[in-house]
Please model this.
Amino acid sequence: MVLSVNTSIKKGTLKNTVKTIELNHTGVKGDAHSGHWNRQVSLLGEESIRKFEKEHGRKVLPGEFAENITTSGIELWKTHPLDRFTSGDIELEITQIGKECHGTYCTIFKEIGDCVMPKEGIFCRVLSPGQLHAGMEFDYHPKIFRIMVITLSDRAASGEYEDLSGPRIRELVKDFFESRNLHLFIHYSLIPDDPHKLDELLHKANEDLIDLVITTGGTGIGPRDFTPDVVKPLLDKEIPGIMEMIRMKYGAGKPNVLVSRSVAGVMGKSLLFTLPGSVKAVNEYLTEIFNSLIHMIYMLHGLDTH
Model:
């Protein structure tokens, strides 16, 4: 529920409550914080405000923390970047949870020495504009990360042995996202070492705006190893550093690792990683990829998380 809408013409000041705000593609029309950046619109929940009031014994009015939209009904700080809010035609996408507090620029911080906005306020960008006023309601849509896992193996596809690498990727990816309270859906395919079938799946992933594609198998130099050769022409940007670091880290003790031709890159709106076919390699590669995966996802969506 929207409790209040608030604007100001100068940064670092309290925002004034108004009847209606106009959301456009730069934020709140006429507000000091609007612009072509990630923090176009700020939201703060009544839940955070009441907690602050109890801790400091001071009544807080809507807009005193310089939030554009004061809400009730959800603990906003528990949401995540790329989640969305909709109300009629209006659509907002969360870009940041909290912010750095500069202290001297915040009116309420100067008075009390504390501020809740840097810890529990959230920021959004406007995807679809419209008029917003108190009493309107938002629907909350958590981001569901769509992931495609592809195993390439002639023998596993023919039933000669069980695919272990693809299920291991699914297990590790599921644990990674769920440990961060992120929602996901995984599509799994087991195909023979067939470049045409791989190409079809990758084009499908691109069309469906899959967030993350991970293949396993076909990264060596054997006669049926072609995965990087199919993937590379489809990449808009290659991310060479990840695979180079992995090969050097694990290849220092086991030179055979250096034969892997695994690649990483961006295909449209998808991050794409090609892993070797063994479970051991899957464990090693994903351990390193996970270190920067969320950062890569946010960068791909134009979010500055530095």
